[in-house]
UniProtKB/TrEMBL annotation:
This is Enoyl-CoA hydratase. One of its GO terms (molecular function) is enoyl-CoA hydratase activity. InterPro entries: ClpP/crotonase-like_dom_sf, Enoyl-CoA_hyd/isom_CS, Enoyl-CoA_hydra/iso, Enoyl-CoA_hydra_C. Its EC number is 4.2.1.17. Pfam families: ECH_1 (PF00378). The lineage of its organism: Bacteria, Bacillati, Bacillota, Bacilli, Bacillales. GO terms for biological process: fatty acid beta-oxidation. It is an enzyme of class 4 (lyase).
Amino acid sequence: MNNHYECIEASITGKLGLINLNRPKVLNAINRQMVSDILSVMEDFDENDQVRVIVLCGNGRAFAAGADIDEMAADDAIDFELRNQFKDWDRLARIKKPIIGAVQGFALGGGFELALCCDLLLAADDAEFGFPEVNLGVMPGAGGTQRLTKLVGKTKAMEWLFTGKRIGALDALQFGIINRIVAKEVLMEETLKFAGEVANQAPLSIRLIKESVLKAVDVSLDEGMQFERKNFYLLFSTEDQKEGMSAFQEKRKANFKGK
Ligand code: HXC
């Protein structure tokens, strides 16, 4: 793994692949290099047998305070089109392993969109989520209007997107945006513990559960049921299914290998 990235830090600890956003002076504002770094590492982790769960976190006062305004201020529509601005974000949606985000401080604009790309989110009690793009005369472009609406429904999504107002960790928990709130001092410790629990589950189950749940967000119930069924069948061709069920019958702990 290449360990030298401009805008992030990456490492592997046990079964966890860790990514730290690392532009603290600008509250981890997301420039194009950062998105490219994130995807390069995530795709490495996705192919690395040692890594079972990916953990994404901020650094300093923020998870990320949005796309880098200085970088995009002079862009015009055709710059975005020719650059295919969101191609790396599309790759992010295709990562197969679970991504757990740890949010401290600001998760705004593109930072909130990045958080919404995680499968599970823990937030510190000081976390603040929001889409302030409306204050800049623009709007979210990396899935904010879509993912937030699918998650919390039209009513709150419209309110938060129209006003740009920031919502705290408690509201985020109540609306199902995050899984847990923890004290800021123990955010990483708790996130790694949570990620460790997921990392010890049967990896192929986790992989196909992720795929099936994400499918549910987009398709009709009937189509989703057919999709789920095929993944259910598929798991019966794995060694881990034999191991999991034998372990149950033999009253011992299963040793899953991801095969
Ligand atoms: C570039 C940013 C930045 C950003 C903060 N900074 N957010 N630089 N892009 N998104 C920089 C500031 O310019 C400042 O640099 C330093 O980080 C610290 O920020 P301050 O503003 O001094 O801190 P504070 O007063 O605590 O205010 C924090 C804040 C504010 C409320 C988060 O920084 C803010 O409103 N940031 C912009 C948030 C935003 O609008 N995000 C949406 C961006 S558009 P200096 O050099 O002065 O110290 C977007 C579109 C997504 O995300 C499209 C798809 C990806």
